[in-house]
Amino acid sequence: MLRKNFISGFLFILVLLIAGAGLLLHNANKIIQHQLQQFLGRGFSVEDISLRWGEVRVTDVRMVRSDSKEVLSIKNLGVRASVIGLLKREYIISDIRLNELYLFLEVDKKGKIVPLFPARTKAPVKASEQKKPPDKDVAPLLIQKFRIEEGSLDYLDRKASSAPVLIKMRAINAELKNFSVPPDSRASAYAVDASIPGKDRKGRLTSRGSIDLKTKDAKSKLSIRDLDITQLRPYYEKKGDVEVTQGLLSLNADITVLKRRIHSEGTITIKDLKFRKSGGKFLGMPLLAVTKLLKDNDDQIVLDFTIQGDLDNPKFSITKSLVQKLSLALAKSLGMPIESIGKSVFDLGGSALKKLFQ
């Protein structure tokens, strides 16, 4: 009888707790949404915030810029805390999951990323708060796993050419493990898989490696398969070049970033190239020589490259450096002496070309 009364009492208390939690969550929804609205700005909205089996779930997150352009949306956002971390009084998130994320990134004509969130005016700091020293003992938030499932990205580059370049990535599945906020010096493993739509087929991007979010040091492998080369024309096409109407690009690269310096070695394969006309140049090389090289090599060109540079140097560009190295590798494949290429390719002298090729 005592056991039966204990079970009944326990169930009664559990029902009261669930009912109380439901009431609190209902009011918490409004409070949290209001706080998020105040923090992120007027363009931010959330459909619902709920607690489901140890997971905080947020649905239909949206961010709209002042020009009514939607720059961020998340169908479902789930956050799970680590029970062990709570017992140890540590701030540990075991899992963050973003389902059907959409992100719009825009680069202006100066090469700067247009902010997603509107600028907020800072409230005046009280004198009492100014005197208070910062709390250096605040524990970082540790996140064991961060996942993106079936995400999408639109990247609009206004700097690449006079006409904006739009590159789309779809079916993005990404994972980042074991990192902290704010970041500390630890290597966090990551994985990314995505498709890149083209005119006739989808390209595929895969990357694996590790990154230190504090120093930005990284070691990774990058693989791209069957990327439609025509959507990259503004990055490699030079004045006087013939228009490329068809072509696929594949890439394999090992990438290392150490103390803000990048070193990358890899191979690029270009195949199934078609041009608007039979005369002119491609990557600064005579088109007739390029088409002959394609014919002699099963309609594909395989080029090795090495890139080194300082990421903090404003004159260094990974894209430009890669195109330069590919042009030099193509010239070498065609048997052309480097000195004869001259300014027609890079607007650099022969001595500068030799340094690039080292």
Oligomeric state as shown: single chain
Domain unit count: 2
Major sheet size, sense and barrel closure:
12 strands, mixed
Structural class computed from helices and strand pairing: alpha+beta
Uncertain runs with pLDDT below 50, 5 residues or more?
Answer: 2-26, 339-358
Helix and strand succession?
A: HEEEHEHEEEEEHEEEEHEHHHH
Kindly state the number of beta strands. Answer: 14
Mean pLDDT: 78
Helix content: 25-40%
**Which shape, going by the Cα principal axes?**
elongated
Compute the separation of the termini in Å.
88 Å
- Beta-strand proportion: 35-45%
Number of helices: 9
- Nearest-angstrom radius of gyration? 27 Å
General description of the model:
- This protein has nine helices and 14 strands.
- With 358 residues, the chain is α+β, with helices and mostly antiparallel strands.
- The chain has two domains: 46-116 and 140-212, no CATH class; 216-358, no CATH class.
- The chain has a twelve-stranded mixed beta sheet with strand order 1-2-3-4-5-6-7-8-9-10-11-14. A two-stranded antiparallel ribbon has the order 12-13.
